[in-house]
Amino acid sequence: MMIDFKRIADVALSRWNVLLPEWLWGGKLDGHEFKALNPTRADSKVGSFSVNVVTGKWADFATGDQGGDLVSLYAYINSMSQKDAAMMLAGILGVDIDQENAGHAPAKLVEGRDGGVADRKRSPWVAVIPAPDDAPDRPVAHYARGRPDVVYTYRTSDGGVAGYVYRFTTSDGGKELMPVCFCKNSVTGEHGWRWQAFPEPRMLYGLDLLALHADRDVLLVEGEKCADAARAVIGDRFVIVTWPGGGKAVGKIDWRPLGGRKVFAWADCDAQREKLTKAERDAGVDPTTKPLLPEKNQPGMKAMLDIRRMVLDIDASTRFEIVDIPEAGKMVPGWDIADAIDDGMGADALVAMINTIRKQSPIISTGHAGLHMSNGKIVPCLSNIYDVLLDDPKWRGVLAFNEFSYVICKQNPPPFDSEPGEWDANDDVQAAMWLTRNYGFAPDPTRVAEAVEALAKINKFHPVRNYLKSQEWDGVKRCDDWITDYIGTPKSAYVMRVSRWFLMGMIARVMEPGVKFDYCLVLEGSQGRRKSSLLRTLAGEWFADTDLDLHNKDSMSSIRGKWLYEFAELDSLARAEAARQKSFLSRQVDEYRPPYGRRDIRSPRQLVFGGSTNEWSWNKDGTGGRRFWPIVCAQDIDCEGLAAVRDQLFAEAYHRYKAGERFWPTNEEQRLIFDPEQVKRHEHDSFIDMLEKFVSDQIGLFPMADAAYHLKIDPARLSRDLQTRIGRALQMLGCTKEEKRTNTISRFWYQPPARGAATPVSAESVGDGSGDGIPF
């Protein structure tokens, strides 16, 4: 392209009365000279900087800077090259710069005493983004172009006005786009709207919509006209954006907001041809006989491919798709989405076309570096599957391993038709087909599953730990009182301990999988008290209450990924004998084969248990059932109130856990505070009532035969079952068993409880977690 600098300078000089007052604010005409302050320096006195309005020559006599025409003056003021200044002025003035015979050199720009003008000087006008709320109204018209056809508003991500782009129709029917920014003069302090480009890196048109609709796919088009046209039809389905400056400005744009999104790029359907050589021009060759440029070199497609490369460099997990536009020459040159809408294409047709995308070349396809090859083809071995999925940008950020549920997750959609969620066998098949279509080799889905598992475990996460670490405690103590506040159970030393320790036990189980915490919170109360709802509120999405078969180890898979499991009405436990109850609740590691698993796994427990029941005598453990922490629900439970403070309850409990506080009863607390509550729920045995006075009358060791005699049981009928029953009754009454040897015979004797009960441990001693170690 040749630029006729002289013609542009002559046209500019003919309009000096419009241009100079805009460029040099506050200047005045003095004879043939327009005198003003130099806006590129701290000039305080009019006189040394002037422009001859007859010849166009200008000079700053204080610095020695000078030039021969208004093109060089515009370059000087705006710190740009002569070429850029000429092109900008040509656009403003409507001068055709693509003339075959043009070629006049620019007027010389003379350096002043301080050195090079362009490098030394910068425009003092600095864009203020966003424009202040009290900024004056934007310009109604341009001083040379007049009123615009339309004005496009550029906004920041939070909705502030960043600037405007005015669209004008030129005298030859073309278009002219001119940006406007609110600026401050760093020298004079003046403020106002200026006809100048947005600062680099320039923001996107639609940045506010990107922030507002973070979950929507993005449609990238060329030009504000296309963006507005598309928004009117499919703006409820896509966030539609573009950028200022056209295809040649893609390197000046801030593309970071598109990183990590799913982007569809609709390029203009250009139809440029190879340019004529000088010899062909001289011979009068028809330009339309030249071949069309390859599509990748057409301006619109080239711009989109350049943008794709830049966005993937920012975030390789971005899904950047190119819409399958018609071939060059099939439509009118420049055909775009606005033309498609004018042609009658409706919302459904547009969406269908947008979803018809071009196949993109994989990043590592060139030479398939590092992959195992055979006869020029990729071998479908495990390491190749692994390397392809690891290196291909379309798989970045897709696979992860959930350490809580022991499953592979799709954190972002994979590059086939699948949504985020748990990876399953169908995904193995889909991934195998994707590898075949994109890399030309056909792996077995089983091999794909193995590679996917290995890749996922590079990116591990734990949703419950992440939740706990994200909570910030406000310092208000609530852990001791939530059962009283929301269940209505009267406050006591027992209730306070259960309130705090159950929450801390939940936290300990996820922070230290397999840690010893074999207690089960049991909510007692009539039907409709919302007992199950309370447990669900505590655990949120990590709650479960499906029936659990304690006799089948593979059913343990149903508790993976759960933080609190409820035995509804204690059904599963009620069906199991006491020994199995104890074994299940005290287990620290579960072994089972998960769904789609190829082998058994050992899964340290990360959950706690709760139960609900309408019964009052549900404890079948003859030893008292220390693993159960019963709570009476005497009123309807306030689940909404609990939900409101749930985050703070766990924040406090997590704080106490990190401080090393204890979350289990000491031996003394168990005997004096917990045992009495647990014994109340025991399936009552009449032997306890019948032996109570007998035991209280004893002052020393006594044999079981004495208890049997008191029960009027014939020694000949004293079976093993009866002996066990009497022994349990004596134990429940506080007796301890001691072994005594007489001659060669060993016998068991019973010691009655000491007379006078010890003083229970005070509620306050629960505070610092000091005391006995873990009593297991």
Quick overview of this protein structure:
The protein is of the alpha/beta class and 776 residues long. It has 5 domains: 5-122, Alpha-Beta Complex (DNA Primase, Chain A); 200-354, Dna Topoisomerase Vi A Subunit, Chain: A, domain 2; 373-461, no CATH class; 470-679, Rossmann fold; 686-751, Arc Repressor Mutant, subunit A (Orthogonal Bundle), CATH 1.10.10. The chain is elongated.
Please give the structural blueprint.
Elements: H1 5-14, H2 16-23, E1 28-30, E2 33-35, E3 49-52, E4 58-60, E5 66-67, H3 70-78, H4 82-93, E6 109-110, H5 117-120, E7 125-127, E8 150-155, E9 161-169, E10 175-185, E11 191-194, H6 207-212, E12 217-220, H7 224-234, E13 238-241, E14 262-265, H8 278-282, H9 299-314, E15 319-322, H10 337-342, H11 347-354, E16 373-374, E17 377-378, H12 382-391, E18 399-402, E19 407-410, E20 421-422, H13 425-439, H14 445-456, E21 460-461, H15 463-470, H16 482-487, H17 493-511, E22 520-524, H18 531-539, E23 543-544, E24 564-567, H19 571-575, H20 578-586, E25 589-592, E26 601-604, E27 608-613, E28 628-632, H21 639-658, H22 667-679, H23 686-697, E29 702-703, H24 704-710, H25 720-732, E30 736-742, E31 745-751
Parallel strand pairs: 12-13, 12-14, 14-15, 18-21, 22-27, 22-28, 23-24, 24-27
Antiparallel strand pairs: 1-2, 2-3, 3-4, 4-5, 5-6, 7-10, 8-9, 9-10, 10-11, 16-17, 18-19, 19-20, 25-26, 29-31, 30-31
Helix pairs in contact: 1-4, 3-4, 12-14, 13-14, 17-21, 18-21, 23-25
